[in-house]
Amino acid sequence: MTSATIVEPKDAHPGYPTGLRRWLVTTDHKDIGLLYMGFSAAMFFVAGMLALVFRAELAAPGVQFLQGSLYNQLVTLHGLAMVFAFIMPFATGLNNYLIPLMIGSPRTALPRLSKWGFWLLPLAVMVLLIPFFLQFFGVGDGASQASWTMDNTGLDMQSRLGVDFTIVAVYLFGISSIFGAFNVIVTVLTLRTPTMSLWSMPLFCWGWLVVAFLLLLVVPVLATAVGLLFADRHFGTHFFIASGGGDPILFQHLFWFFGHPEVYIVVLPAWAILPTILSAFSRKPIYGYKAQVYSYWAIAFLGSIVWGHHMLAQGLPLMENLYFMYATFSISVPTSVLIFCWIGTIWRGAMTFETPMLFALGAIVGMLIGGLSGVLIPDAGAYSQYHNTMYITGHFHYPFFGAAVLGMMATVYYYLPKMTGRMYNESLGRLHFWITAVSFNVTFLSMMMVGLAGMPRHVVDYAIKYADWNRVISVAAFVLGAAQLIFLYNVIQTIRGHGEKAADKPWEGAVGLEWTPSSPPPS
Ligand code: HEM
Ligand SMILES: [Cu+2]
User: Fold this and answer.
1) How confident is the model at residue 167 (pLDDT cuts 50, 70, 90)?
2) Is 79 close to ligand 1, i.e. is its CB under 6 Å away?
3) Is any atom of ligand 1 closer than 6 Å to the C-beta of 480?
4) Ligand 1: which atom is nearest the Cα of residue 266?
5) Which three-class secondary structure state does DSSP give residue 86?
6) Is 78 near ligand 1, meaning CB less than 6 Å away?
7) Cα of 68 from ligand 1 centre, angstroms
8) Would you say the CB of residue 334 lies under 6 angstroms from ligand 1?
9) Residue with the nearest Cα to atom 35 of ligand 1?
10) Which atom of ligand 1 is nearest to the CA of 147?
11) Closest-lying ligand 1 atom to the alpha carbon of residue 404
12) pLDDT at residue number 154
């Protein structure tokens, strides 16, 4: 089907529903995007609150208030919610909102599928949380404690309700992602305005196209892994049970075949929007467009064949460990190409530092520290020292929070005038950036430090010698959390119509079709 043969849906006409009905019946790509973004932003605050609860517990050695398995439950919920309920759906919301505007289409190709994808999310979150609350009524043993990687197989087998509910929730999240991926692929391939070739479409569309294919490749493998786990738990099979002839390591292979590409699923949408923002605030065209597209594909390919670097301590044969180590190092080539292109884009540009630009530069630094701290880890010789320590926790929050979340924040500030028709408060935006940048780095660099000193992760109590670092981390984490309230306030005020009216193209250096319609764009 070409764009010309698609009949416009009825709801594109004037009598577009308002109020609650609008959000229930909408097939407008912008409304669907806003639903995704609103819901996942709320989940960001929920999962962030969980982190603050267990950071309060960790502020001092000894067990304060998270008795029994509560600590591990909260860590697991925090990880699962951040990954599946916040950051992936948020990027999906952005693609629903932005891709049609960027390619000059009034709609996405499969809006109803995309809407299904959205409504599965609240359901999945409910399923995830039910066992947590049931334990307070004496039912079951709480949420899963098996960490977001679900690989603590011993625990998996013992825990009654939590893991089962997690498995169902992961299925629902997975179906949602697959629906979103189909929508992106068909939209990008069939609905571009006739004059736009693949090689002239915005990098954000390219990035998301790659992410969509990655999702189709790896999410079914995750579903298989948790499906087999479910069978082991209830149907008497022994896929992962060593005593029955199965192999617990097989679960980790399947999980990480999903888990490592997942990192790129999370960061690529952010990486793909950065050049657009950098170019707008340097008043220069994007440098190395094609090189960046090839890098996305290279990252997706290499990212899919390095999963074993999460398993270097599991006793794989030496040659396998060496393979995974060198293969992992090779990813630094395409990622370095990206960083080189971004520096090329701002090089000698007429740079100004509005909030989106600050966050974009912050995301680059986050990616650099995440990458550099990551290159050390798969060193097969040194791995046993890093394994299961707070160093790992500090490290992976750099790509997740440092690159992806800061990148999303840059995007929100950049497009907020387009989405709301109003300018946000610039001073509050900059304040938000500086407090976030400082407290984020203090939190997670300190985590790396205390990890190098030997503090394990996934523990509620720790030796006295780690107490100082942990106090620093907890205080910084609370400052980081508080800074996000500034963001929330700024965004809500902008949505409520405070702030100057925004022009159709509020940024002098911005280019792209998405600035053509009025702000906010009509449904
Ligand atoms: C206020 C910000 C945040 C703080 C203070 C924080 C803190 C932490 C800490 C201390 C742990 C490890 C606990 C342990 O192993 O004992 C953890 C785990 C984790 N965090 Fe965060 N985090 C924050 C934001 C995020 C964000 C934005 C993401 C992703 C988008 C994220 C994803 C994860 C994941 C996947 C885990 C692993 C959970 C597990 O091992 O099962 N976090 N976080
Ligand atoms: Cu990995």
Assistant:
1) very high
2) yes
3) yes
4) 30
5) helix
6) yes
7) 20
8) no
9) 79
10) 41
11) 30
12) 61
State the Cα–Cα distance between residues 345 and 285, nearest whole angstrom: 7
| Neighbour count for residue 406 (Cβ, 10 Å) | 27
Q: Is the CB of 233 under 6 A from ligand 1?
A: no
Let me know: does 163 contact 233? Beta carbons within 8 Å: yes
**Atom 16 of ligand 1: nearest residue by CA position:** 458
Is residue 11 pLDDT above 60, yes or no? no
Compute the distance from residue 371 Cα to the ligand 2 centre, in Å: 11
| Ligand 1 midpoint to CA 50 (Å) | 9
Output the pLDDT for position 34.
96
Cα of 498 from ligand 2 centre, angstroms: 43
pTM exceeds cut of 0.85? yes
**pLDDT score for 151:** 76
Q: Which structure tokens are listed for 456?
A: 């394990």
Residue found by looking up tokens 């280019």 in the block: 511
The predicted-structure confidence for 418-433, as pLDDT tens digits, reads as follows: 999 999 999 999 999 9
Comparison of pLDDT for 68 and 283, the residue scoring more: 283
Q: Given this model, what pLDDT does residue 491 score?
A: 97
Q: Which of 18-22, 61-65, 258-262, 462-466 has the lowest mean pLDDT?
A: 18-22
Average pLDDT over residues 308-331: 90
Distances (CA, A) of 125 to 54, 171, 242, 456: 20, 11, 32, 29
> What is the distance between the alpha carbons of residues 240 and 165, in angstroms, rounded to a whole number?
19
User: Given pLDDT bands bounded at 50, 70 and 90, which one contains residue 140?
Assistant: confident
Residue that wins the pLDDT comparison between 332 and 4: 332
Tell me how far the alpha carbon of residue 218 lies from the centroid of ligand 2, in angstroms. 13
Taking the centre of ligand 2 as the mean of its atom positions, its distance from the CA of residue 260, in whole angstroms, is 4
Average pLDDT of the residues in 133-162: 82
State the pLDDT at residue 160.
72
Query: Which atom of ligand 1 is nearest to 86's Cα?
Result: 30
Name every residue whose Cβ is closer than 8 Å to that of residue 133 and which is 6 or more positions away in sequence: none
Rounded Cα distance, 98 and 184, in Å: 11
Q: What is the DSSP string of 226-282?
A: HHHHHHHHHS---SS-GGGT--HHHHHHHHHHHHHHHHHHHHHHHHHHHHHHHHHHH
* Whether the CB of 395 sits within 6 Å of ligand 1: no
3-state secondary structure 293-315: HHHHHHHHHHHCCCHHHHCCCCC
Tokens of 327: 């293969």
